[in-house]
Amino acid sequence: MLYSTPGRNNKMRRLNKTLTVLSLAITVSGICGCGQALPAEEPAGTEETVNTDAGSITETENEGNTYSAIYRDKINELSSEGLADQFALANIDEDGIPELIASDSNGSFDHENAYIFTICNDEAVLLAGVITGVDGGCLDYAEGANLIHVSGAAAGMREVFSKIREGRLEEAFCAEASGMDEDAQYSVNGSSVSEKEYYEKVNEFAETYDPFTRIAYDGLYDVSYFFEDGYGGFEQGSSKQYSSAEEIMKELN
């Protein structure tokens, strides 16, 4: 199935419309985005957490399924606090230790409702958390390719693709667009580019890793993204359902 966001009559359509039909709220803490430190505050109404905090963290050895107990504790925490009620495991970076995917089936706007955790230093570390339903965007991953994609911005477009490195996200590719008409500005990895180059470079990078798995409140969807002149969207493929807290606990035993 094909989803797209139709363009408007000027470039505002490209910059204020988001990649997908499902929208997400985005704010980022730390340093993550074209190699620049982000402002301390983002526009009101947006929220997202991306862990890019460097440190001497090494991933837990998968000896005796050590990560299982750590993830069980995290699942109990998320469940008891009402933050997530459905879960999945995905080996995003193929290190033998799966990442924990968590989601709130209600798609609540009161808190982050899509999460990716990994194991580092004997702890469940949050790599990214997103509020769905505001400001446009998505949280998804390319399993086995070590790539996590966060899309969306309060105004304009922002596509950030990151890899997992020692318990944090390390940016691999960032494309941003802002402004409108003659004031429209486009950048890729911190360098100014033309509108044409912007779409070419984003498409080229995304297509290298297709399909992605999109974390949604109603399931996990295989999606292939496309970026065109005035349009952004995805082709949706197969989907799978989450496990409940009880089911994922059994899987982790």
Describe the structure.
Helices cover 17% and strands 40% of the residues. With 253 residues, it is α+β, with helices and mostly antiparallel strands. It has one domain (2-252). A hairpin with a 2-residue loop joins strand 14 (212-216) and strand 15. Helix 2 (66-80) packs antiparallel against helix 4 (245-252). The radius of gyration is 18 Å and the shape is elongated.
Summarize the structure.
By secondary structure, this protein is an alpha+beta fold. The chain has helices at residues 12-16, 66-80, 195-209, 245-252; strands at 2-5, 24-25, 48-50, 86-90, 99-103, 114-120, 123-132, 138-142, 147-151, 157-165, 168-178, 185-188, 191-193, 212-216, 219-228, 231-240, 243-244. The longest helix is centred in the first third of the chain and has 15 residues, at 66-80.
SSE layout and pairing:
Elements: E1 2-5, H1 12-16, E2 24-25, E3 48-50, H2 66-80, E4 86-90, E5 99-103, E6 114-120, E7 123-132, E8 138-142, E9 147-151, E10 157-165, E11 168-178, E12 185-188, E13 191-193, H3 195-209, E14 212-216, E15 219-228, E16 231-240, E17 243-244, H4 245-252
Antiparallel strand pairs: 1-16, 2-7, 3-7, 4-5, 4-17, 5-6, 6-7, 8-9, 8-14, 9-10, 10-11, 11-12, 12-13, 14-15, 15-16
Helix pairs in contact: 2-4
How widely separated are the two ends? Answer: 37 Å
Q: In the residues, how many domains can be counted?
A: 1
Oligomer: single chain
List segments where confidence is low: pLDDT < 50 over at least 5 consecutive residues. 1-47, 54-64
Largest sheet: 10 strands, antiparallel
- What's the average pLDDT? 77
Strand order in the largest sheet: 1-16-15-14-8-9-10-11-12-13
Structural class: alpha+beta
Q: What is the general shape?
A: elongated
Strand content: 35-45%
Radius of gyration over C-alpha positions, nearest whole angstrom: 18 Å
Give the % helix: 10-25%
Number of strands: 17
Separate helix tally: 4
Order of helices and strands: EHEEHEEEEEEEEEEHEEEEH
